Amino acid sequence: MSIEIQGVGKRFGDFVALENIDLSIPTGQLTALLGPSGGGKSTLLRIIAGLENADEGTVEIEGVNATQLPPQKRNVGFVFQHYAAFKHMTVAKNVAFGLEIRKRPKHEIKAKVAELLELVHLSQFADRLPSQLSGGQRQRMALARALAIEPSVLLLDEPFGALDAKVRKELRDWLRRLHDEVHVTTVFVTHDQEEALEVSDSIVVINEGRIEQIGSPDDLYDRPANEFVLSFLGPVTQLGDRSIRPHDIAVSPIEISSAVEGRITRWTRVGFEVRLEVTPTDPRFEDRVLVSLTRAEASGLGVGEGSLVWLRPMDGALTLV
């Protein structure tokens, strides 16, 4: 179910949280709102949900103008970072809550809860309390509860932010598979670039209340609209007077023309990757250059800390002045 946002603005006193936001989210798509803290992404999500009122502009959900509708009339499911579980209720009761307040028949509620708990792999924990679950399990319970009311739109506000890195990775893989099964239009807020690139169909980069760029993960990573998008979506370094990704730099132990000369001042191995810091010998270039190589590439160079090397962009590499 599509979402159409036109001319939305929001201020908190003198602070401009959002300014003239236009955004179209197609039916069935998983869209990430990505940006730094305070950039406006959570405010936009809360306006879609009806938890905040826009100062200007309109929000349309499923072809209906929802700008003035209260949250309960918008048919959206909302999942927060910190679960918001009913601590005194079992997992099954938490999932059933939205259906019970809508006075659905008991047999329908029972069947729906069983279906959802199986979908999120929590059937065996139906009678446990939330406190007896791990963080990842509680977040899956929260997603099941949001899906129980069969929302037109599922909204997730940094749903995995409170979890450790390993669990976050597992849950974002699971979220992508879940979305492919249920096909509900989903919007999630994150400041984690890897999460957005890995999970979403489309990414909306928001900074200082404005949209910097909208596109697929590949579009934004390979063809950023500006230096902010380049630097926010993955690592970036300075090579001479240009911004470039560290893995797009070619390293040579032999002098080559039109290359930046420098000395390796740090050599760090991180698993399969070797990270170099190279200090340019030209005093005009004050910043150290960060270079990312595979172990095989690094070993083949025959150099180490203190070695003189020459750096240039790889063929086809994206650079911004």
Automatic annotation (TrEMBL):
Residues 3-233 form the ABC transporter domain. Keywords: ATP-binding, Nucleotide-binding, Sulfate transport, Translocase, Transport. GO terms for molecular function: ABC-type quaternary ammonium compound transporting activity; ABC-type sulfate transporter activity; ATP binding; ATP hydrolysis activity. GO terms for cellular component: ATP-binding cassette (ABC) transporter complex. Its EC number is 7.6.2.9. This is ABC-type quaternary amine transporter. It comes from Aeromicrobium flavum. The lineage of its organism: Bacteria, Bacillati, Actinomycetota, Actinomycetes, Propionibacteriales. The gene is cysA.
